[in-house]
Amino acid sequence: MSGVSTAMLVAAATVQHGYGRVELAQQAQLARACLERCGAGGRGLLRLVDHVLGRAGLSVLEALALPGLRGHYAWRKRRIAHWADRACANGAAQAVLIGTGYDGLGWSLAQRHPALRVFELDRADTVAIKREALRQLRADTSRLRLLEADLERDDALSALVADPGFDSGLPTVCVAEGVLMYLPSARAQQLLRAMAQCLTHPTLIATAMDLWHGRPRFRRERPWVRGWLQRRGEPFRWGCEREAIGAWLAVCGWSLRALAEPGDPDDPDPSPGEWLFLAECAAASPPR
Predict the structure, then answer these.
(1) What is the pTM of this model?
(2) Is a pLDDT exceeding 50 seen at residue 161?
């Protein structure tokens, strides 16, 4: 697991889930192209994903670390894509994606909604890898802007606000998937507050860790995973119980609209422990 980040694990899961599935082919292509540029760790993950024995080994490792994790990623992404598509159908003209890693949601949204402008914010090294991957795939990025941002800084949204294609007055869907838990709680709230203040009619799709036995974690997470995340510099810094999500969002100017149910009998979360929610700016009028 040396040299492997959580963003790379998500990308590898995307590649594996994309096999033989037309609706996921585009995102799987992008994830693969990104992993090819992630050094020995990324190329090693691809070798595992591309072979039967390698996939079996990944399944064993998942069982030893966090059973159901790859299924959780797929479960989470299905719902995010559904909510984002619905927001676009309801009039969102922009999408702002925070800390996207090697995910292809922004690219896919731009393809499915021809009038949509998409802005992705992430670290400079991640943006550079994704840019090269999209160039390799000869992707149409005319409505997709990849912007460098340090989410731990007070001016994290400065690149977005300064971009000539960005219009703060347009209805916007914001996505923060699998990123807020890596920031201190106060910093995460500050970031969401800044988003609420700089946008006129925003909708928010985001995730936050649950608290399990007093700390942020997945329910089936093995004890050694916490140490691995610490060594990777990606510890979960905070979590929130279900009953407290609404109040936590209210502090930063958002109102909770919906929460994805991990126990949905028709499609349960294979590895519960991360809340996925939909919110609207508290100052905005509710959608009709």
Answers:
(1) 0.94
(2) yes
